[in-house]
Structures are given as C-alpha cells and as structure tokens.
Amino acid sequence: AGDRVPALTARALHATYGGFKALDGVDLHVPPARITAVVGPNGAGKSTLFHCLAGTLHATQGDIHYGDRNITHLPAHTRTRLGIARTFQQLAVFPSLTVAENVRVGAEQGHITDPTAVARALRLLGLTPLSNTPAADLPTGTLRRVELARALAGSPRVLLLDEPAAGLDTAEITALARVLKALAADGTALLVVEHDLDLVADLADVVHVMTAGRVIASGPPDHVLDTLGAQETPV
Ligand code: ADP
Ligand code: MG
C-alpha cells in the first residue's frame, strides 16, 4: 500500500486487426483497491482490450490514462516500469529457468526494485519449496502461480490478469481468489478477464460485459451476472 495507486482509465478505445474492428469504443475504469472483471463470449475483444492496456497492441483511437498521465503511446516495458504488470492467457514462463529465476525476471522488469520482493512473491503463491525446480517440470496450475508471482515480484500497482483460473482445479482457484483479494485489500488495482463466472461473482467489485468489441453492461456481479443468466448468453 503506502503511496496512492493511480487508476487506469481507458476512453473510447478502438483497435483493429487488418480491417477487422476488434474494439469498437471501449470505456473502462480500473480503480485502486478493487477487483474489476471483464467477461464475455469468445471473440468479444477481452484479450484485445487487455493488450491495449498492457501496451502490446496500440489502439487506433482513444486514450489510456494512468492517474494523470497519458500512457496511450508508451511501450509495454515502460508501462511495466510505471507499475502496470500483467500475466498472459497463453502462459509465458521460461521453461529452462527455475521457478525462482522466472520470478526474478519479473522483479528486474518491474516498478520497484525491492530485494525482498522475489521471496515475498514466492511465499505468497506457495512456491518457496519449488524455488529451484525447473519450470519445464511443473503442471499448468503451478505455472499459473509462477506467472502471477513473476508479475508480483515487480511490486505492481495495477495488475492485469487474462484468464488466471484457466487450467486450475477447484482448490487452486480457491487459493487464487484468496491471493487476489489480499492484493486488492492492500491497494492494488486489479483487472481480471475471466471465463469462470463463479469466480467472477466471488471476486469482482464491478463486472463489465463485452461483446463484439463493446461493453454492453456494467455493474456489481449479482446484478450483471443475473442479467446474463436470464438471457442465457453464452459466456
Ligand atoms: P476474447 O479474448 O474476448 O476471446 P480477442 O480479443 O482475442 O477476444 O479477439 C477479438 C476478435 O479479434 C476475435 O474476432 C478474434 O478472432 C480477432 N483477433 C484476435 N487476435 C487477432 C489477430 N492477431 N489477428 C486477427 N484477428 C484477431
Ligand atoms: Mg481472450
């Protein structure tokens, strides 16, 4: 916690792949100390929104602010330095490195260089006993934790998670939810793109529903997810 965490705000974001409009004017606010969720069917543009926020894809229109600062044109690594960390839907762990080495990469790329951050991230994700295990030897659920620990090792103030529960079992999802709630309680701004609506209902303060590159509904999970259920929208 400590210093104030700036909010991440997107306004009227548009993004295209070739001629295809993947984002068609998205507004999104990701405030500190809250868990904000984005749900929606496959192809809705959730990952595209995520790439625009992280800086791996540049929006064709619209802007992104981090506190007072316009970060729309900043490259991904600069956003990471400013405190915006992410994980990947397709895992991006280095298989030849050990768990601790993977997490150290995150510390080096991150917002604050804190020598205790690697050990703290490993402990928070229950990875301390696996510190010296090569990532190649580990199952998906554990690799998701390595990926999250790597993002946390840079002491981020905004954390972007694309489908963090994909491939996890029930016990792992429960443990993940506990970690994410603790991070939000500590002041971190979290954005979670997630298919698991039970997890979203448990975690999120606000849910945004996307379809066809737009946000079509926003609100607290009990309200928004009930609306979805009533329409039997596949999510
Ligand atoms: P979601 O994460 O909600 O499933 P995406 O953001 O991945 O959706 O994709 C949104 C739309 O953009 C989809 O129609 C998808 O096929 C298309 N798309 C995504 N990535 C690319 C790409 N690299 N090139 C072309 N089209 C893409
Ligand atoms: Mg996606």
Automatic annotation (TrEMBL):
Stretch forming the signal peptide: none
Instruction: Please list the residue ranges annotated as the ABC transporter domain.
Output: 8-235
Which locations, inside or outside the cell, does it occupy?
A: Cell membrane
User: Domain of life here?
Assistant: Bacteria
Name the record gives this protein:
ABC transporter permease
Source organism per entry reads Streptomyces davaonensis (strain DSM 101723 / JCM 4913 / KCC S-0913 / 768)
Of the intact sequence, the residues represented are 656 to 890 of 890
